[in-house]
Amino acid sequence: MGAETILSAASTLALALMCVAFFLTAWRVIRGPTLPDRIVALDMLVAIAIGFIAVIAIRTGFNLYIDIAIALGLVGFLATVAFARFVLSHGMADEGEEPAASPARPARGKGRRKGRVR
């Protein structure tokens, strides 16, 4: 059994396992139950897509795919951070809660400041 046979079998097994992971993660995106669960599942879909690209790069020997996978990882990270900031600023709408209000700020210009003499 040569190296080509082992590499072919391993890449086929990896692609099959990633297909199963992709469908399970897509089910989690659709099913939910909460918005953070969907965000984590979307981040996982990006990671699975990076895995697909890496396996295809190994199978074909075309190294440009690795650069594409790195770019996809950066974009996926930025999207996850943006979704997380959205959830923090707007609250969890899936739970029936009102969006989180910003904390009350003290009124400016009222009262006397310490250390100042008028």
What does this protein structure show overall?
- With 118 residues, the protein is mainly alpha-helical.
- The protein has one domain (3-94): Helix Hairpins, CATH 1.10.287.
- Helices cover 69% and strands 0% of the residues.
- It contains three helices and no strands.
- The protein has helices at residues 3-31, 35-60, 64-90.
- α1 (3-31) packs antiparallel against α2 (35-60) and α2 runs antiparallel to α3 (64-90).
- The longest helix is centred in the N-terminal third of the chain and has 29 residues, at 3-31.
- The model has no long low-confidence stretch (mean pLDDT 85).
- It is a multi-pass membrane protein.
- Its main location: membrane.
- It comes from Shinella sumterensis.
- Belongs to the CPA3 antiporters (TC 2.A.63) subunit F family.
- The chain crosses the membrane at residues 6-27, 39-58, 64-88.
Summarize the structure.
GO terms for molecular function: sodium:proton antiporter activity. The protein is mainly α and 118 residues long.
Poorly predicted segments: none
Proportion of helical residues: 55-70%
Could you describe the largest sheet, including whether it forms a barrel? Answer: none
Count of beta strands? 0
Based on CA atoms alone, the radius of gyration comes out at: 24 Å
Alpha plus pi helix count? 3
Top-tier CATH class: Mainly Alpha
* Overall pLDDT score: 85
Structural class: mainly alpha
Number of domains: 1
Query: What overall geometry do the principal axes of the alpha carbons give?
Result: elongated
Helix and strand run: HHH
What proportion of the residues form beta strands (DSSP E)?
under 5%
First CA to last CA: what distance?
91 Å
- CATH fold name: Helix Hairpins
Level-2 CATH architecture? Orthogonal Bundle
Pfam families: MrpF_PhaF (PF04066)
InterPro entries: MrpF/PhaF-like
Membrane topology: Multi-pass membrane protein
Biased composition (Basic residues): 107-118
